[in-house]
Specification:
alpha/beta; Rossmann fold; 2 domains; 8 helices; 10 strands; binds adenosine-5'-triphosphate; ABC_transporter-like_ATP-bd; ABC_transporter_ATP-binding; transport
């Protein structure tokens, strides 16, 4: 329980196969990087995991719940940070999260406590009263990650969450999310095309042209040079 299983998932956009029998599983508390160049199928997989659409074939099990058979229970167990920000810039940080809490049936003191705990976890508690539009890009992303934790999911999905951020903001976010996995037992699936966001002990799944090319410990797949290995495997400049 608490992990993620993707079993022989196939998806096509018209005649184009975006995913071909993709299988991997992530254990509870594991940080798994899903690495692939543009067009590898990462966003398609995220769309399937969040049930924006359903796969042609194969199955997905989220924290023990089959997504096709029991979608409500499965979706309740995931938190999602999409590639495109979805923040109301005119509201305070706290208010943005409280609205999200309300969508999950949380209100009053309980919602306040959950919201402040989630912000605290991302080092954002002291920003709760600021207007979201006044935050820099890195803090907005941290706020979105905190929001994805308010309903206490078992699994956190992040689709290229550091796109457009500077080096320091990226490093802070990579660090925060690793700690959520290591310290809170959160299962993390982190889609990226940036090799430097991945640490040797991380779980790594390399996706290319809709297929899994490698699956294992990042340090073992990449050796001393994950970038070189990634380029050799995919032909893509990371
Ligand atoms: N809505 C769609 N309609 C048609 N084709 C699509 C759609 N979404 C993705 N594709 C195609 O599916 C393949 C996989 O794309 P996908 O966006 O999942 O890859 P990705 O790894 O997320 O890439 P990126 O980093 O550019 O987002 C690509 O060939 C893409 O053109």
């Amino acid at each position: 329980m608490g992990g993620l299983n993707v079993e022989a998932v196939t998806h096509a956009w018209g005649a184009r196969r975006a995913l071909e029998e993709v299988s991997f599983s992530v254990a509870r508390g594991q940080f798994c990087a899903l690495l692939g160049p543009n067009g590898a199928g990462k966003s398609t997989l995220f769309g399937l995991l969040t049930r924006l659409f359903t796969p042609l074939a194969g199955g997905i099990v989220i924290a023990g719940h089959d997504l096709a058979r029991n979608p409500q229970a499965a979706l309740q167990r995931i938190g999602v940070v999409f590639q495109q920000p979805t923040i109301d810039l005119g509201l305070t940080v706290r208010r943005n999260l409280l609205y999200f809490a309300a969508l999950h049936g949380l209100s009053g003191r309980r919602a306040e406590i959950r919201v402040m705990a989630a912000l605290d976890r991302l080092g954002m508690a002291e920003r709760a009263g600021e207007r979201a539009g006044a935050l820099n890009g890195g803090h907005r992303r941290r706020m979105e990650i905190a929001r994805a934790l308010v309903h206490r999911p078992a699994i956190l999905l992040l689709d290229e969450p550091t796109v457009g951020l500077d080096g320091a903001a990226r490093a802070a976010i990579v660090d925060h999310v690793h700690r959520l996995a290591a310290e809170d037992g959160l299962t993390v699936l982190w889609a990226t095309h940036l090799v430097d966001e991945i640490r040797p002990p991380d779980r790594l799944v390399i996706l290319h042209c809709g297929r899994v090319l490698a699956d294992g410990k990042a340090g073992e797949i990449g050796g001393a040079d994950l970038t070189g290995r990634f380029i050799a495997m995919t032909g893509a400049a990371p």
